[in-house]
Specification:
eight-stranded mixed sheet; three-stranded antiparallel sheet; about 475 residues; 15 strands; alpha/beta; homodimer
């Protein structure tokens, strides 16, 4: 069986090489194929003879093996055009998502990223925790579909009336969002979002077939008067927001607005999906408690992720809700991917309950403060004509307003030509933007690079 | 900050304790709270005073801290009834999924499981691979959203014309299915499924808003004549099947039917979603190549998972398709959970490209053969009056036909009373079952337990 597998691999390899090379091209030698596929020379020779018999290869004893003249002709070009009919119209918003997740090319200055820079990630601690977890045979077993009870209990701390059993562990915050929009609303329903807001949430809501209606936010977070108006006008049963250090605009819902927002949601018989993505990313002061702490009757669905706080590879988040909504979420999560890998759950729990966790958060806060201040300094220095962004008190981003009439997408392109990656403001709006903006990330580069990045951005703005 | 956090933790802890205990209950001492939350005695005392000021606690100097009489009254029972209006009707099929994923209680005989038994999992090898991967700082970084190129190339081997770039790595096969039904069809569309078929696919298709129409399969797999009729009658553009060792019925699509099935799908301008879940679970002979190898024009969407072949915790699968369908899938996967954890991807690649992989597959084949034969023997011995199931040539399950008129769900309940877990046949059908069945898993218990389990099942059938 092992030999059969090896033969299949060699054949696969040679077929691919023959299909991808012009007739007459030399193919790897028996010796090379033997090493590459851990196959015996007999197996390799047999594979070559089989393909020669098919007319795909020419073997020339003493010289080697070559792509046969007819090989190219033997593989007709596939006709995939029928797929357009079968698939129908393409969903919107996917381009922005792939831009969001594109890995910056080496040598570029990343002023756009959703994650902590490598230097800020506790990779050694996480690595040790995962290595320990990996070696527990029990961690490879199937646990409860909703995730480890102890890890859910950790997420339930500080989440108001939510208990461990109200939560389900998810492979990251995006997974939780995608499921939540589908579980808590039906295609054609309206979802309200603060505006601007996280584009991954916009895309997930649209993919769920929802009508996305923006509710403007200002420096004090979403405007309760407009939220009330939108709830009344649309009959929406779901409102998505990031009350703390919102992505991209950085504002935190002001203390005076918190109770009003909850009251409007309550009065409308609606859910508030609280995406508490930046709980561990406070810079200037300890963060306020999440809105869910003020929720008496199960209106707030609460989402928190460790991916932003630790490293992209620690894909562990949790979403919680009381009552039927919680049951609906947990059932939908199971359909979406069963459960999260046991070793990752165990490593996450070990990390957040160890002394390394508060140490990491302290170091992170200091580093984010340094970088945020460096970015704001650089903006004041190199872009003195622009309104300086309001100071983000946490999170990873500053929200830079461009001059009226500027084209944020064109500026992004001009910056890319100068090897600086920024994110345009437009995709963060569910409808027309109020003004052109750029989102500038301060977490993904050290201070000196931030300065150079803004310097080049200033030049790009003159283009 | 640390002290503030500690204070918040102590307050949270005491609030929870007060909410969950009757008035007069004694709460933990200052000393206990100091140790539990790594907080200073001053911080703990301050937290207790704050809650006493709220009227939640009574402090009795020299005696301790107690839940105040008014505390219970201070927390009104939440009113969650409004949620029923906001959420609307409940989706069907969720109960079967939770039964599928329930972890059997200790002491029961598991004749139902979707995964290999602990004894058959290569936990030590996987653990070593993941421990190595965890210690590479780079593996915690963000890689390409579609997954590692080398791992995708591994999945592309033996998958016909599909190349690495046609694949996207997913956190398990269920995630791939859930995304595929949403990406390749729109709510209200019809999807055809072989019948009976994997209930997780039925549930995911229904959750995607699809109309699920069954196409009967027999011992030679799905019937091409009925597939042609169903494609013609419904206009479906998507057909889901497991051509090899289908779950639950175990049949493999006969050689004589493969080309006909592909031809019907081609003629209808439809996609065939090939769920090759049992590629590594062949028992009696090397498996036939997947259908995708005979696909010239991008009709087959190919899904393969490592979770079934290795361990539940190795949540790594891949789904691939050419042309716009592949692009659609990759874009939808990003919306659903961004990307799969780097250390898990690296561990999976290390494992499947190491000499341990073919060794594991050989050992697995031998063990599955022993267990399958033991289960079939036990059925012949203890249930001689029933038609013996046709011999599954791979996979994890046998499909036992019950006498006409038997109630498969009642039998399942009676077996559970005798501490044997089996799965009823009904949830595996998209419509009315042709006959009552049970799905009996041979992979999840050693031979002696299989015999005892079938013995008890025979008794349950007499109940």
């Amino acid at each position: 069986m092992n030999d059969d597998n090896a033969a299949a691999r060699v054949i696969q390899d040679l077929r691919a090489a023959a299909a991808g090379s012009p007739p007459g091209s030399r193919l790897p030698t028996v010796r090379e194929l033997t090493a590459r596929h851990q196959a015996s020379p007999i197996t390799v020779s047999r594979a070559i003879r089989a393909l020669a018999a098919e007319g795909l290869l020419d073997t020339q004893p003493g010289r080697g093996t070559f792509v046969a003249a007819r090989a190219a002709a033997a593989v007709p070009a596939p006709d995939l055009s029928w797929q357009s009919i079968a698939l129908g119209p393409r969903p919107a918003g996917e381009d922005a998502m792939s831009a969001l997740l594109a890995v910056p090319r080496p040598g570029t200055i990343p002023l756009s990223s959703g994650y902590l820079d490598e230097d800020l990630q506790p990779a050694a601690t996480l690595g040790a925790a995962l290595a320990r977890a990996a070696r527990h045979p029990s961690s490879w077993q199937r646990g409860p579909a909703e995730g480890r009870e102890d890890l859910r209990a950790w997420f339930a701390r500080g989440a108001g009336a939510l208990r461990a059993e109200d939560f389900v562990i998810c492979p990251g915050g995006q997974a939780a969002l995608s499921t939540a929009f589908r579980a808590l609303a039906a295609p054609g329903d309206t979802v309200l979002v603060e505006s601007p807001t996280y584009l991954g949430a916009l895309a997930a809501a649209r993919a769920a077939g929802l009508r996305v209606v923006p509710v403007p936010a200002d420096n004090a977070g979403v405007r309760p008067d407009l939220l009330a108006a939108a709830l009344g006008r649309t009959g929406a049963r779901l409102f998505y927001c990031q009350p703390m250090f919102a992505n991209p605009h950085g504002a935190t819902l002001a203390p005076g607005r918190r109770e009003r927002v909850l009251a409007e949601v309550r009065a409308a018989g609606a859910f508030l999906l609280e995406d508490d993505y930046a709980r561990d990313l406070a810079i200037d002061a300890d963060p306020p408690p999440p809105l869910v702490c003020g929720d008496t009757d199960g209106h707030v669905v609460y989402l928190r992720s460790l991916t932003k706080s630790a490293a992209p590879g620690l894909r562990v988040a949790a979403i919680g809700a009381r009552g039927p909504a919680g049951a609906r979420l947990r059932a939908a999560r199971v359909l979406d991917d069963f459960f999260v890998s046991g070793p990752l759950q165990q490593a996450a729990l070990d990390f957040v309950t160890s002394p390394a966790w508060p140490r990491h958060l302290r170091a992170l806060r200091a580093a984010l403060r340094t970088r945020r201040d460096a970015l704001l300094d650089a903006i004041r220095r190199h872009l003195p004509a622009l309104d300086p962004p309001s100071v983000p008190r946490g999170g990873l981003h500053a929200w830079l307003r461009l001059p009226d009439g500027a084209d944020d997408v064109a500026v992004t392109t001009a910056a890319a030509a100068r090897h600086v990656v920024v994110f345009p403001g437009r995709p963060w709006y569910a409808a027309e933007p109020d003004a052109p903006h750029l989102r500038l990330t301060f977490a993904a580069a050290p201070p000196a690079l931030l300065d150079e990045g803004v310097h080049r951005l200033a030049q790009a703005l003159l283009d």
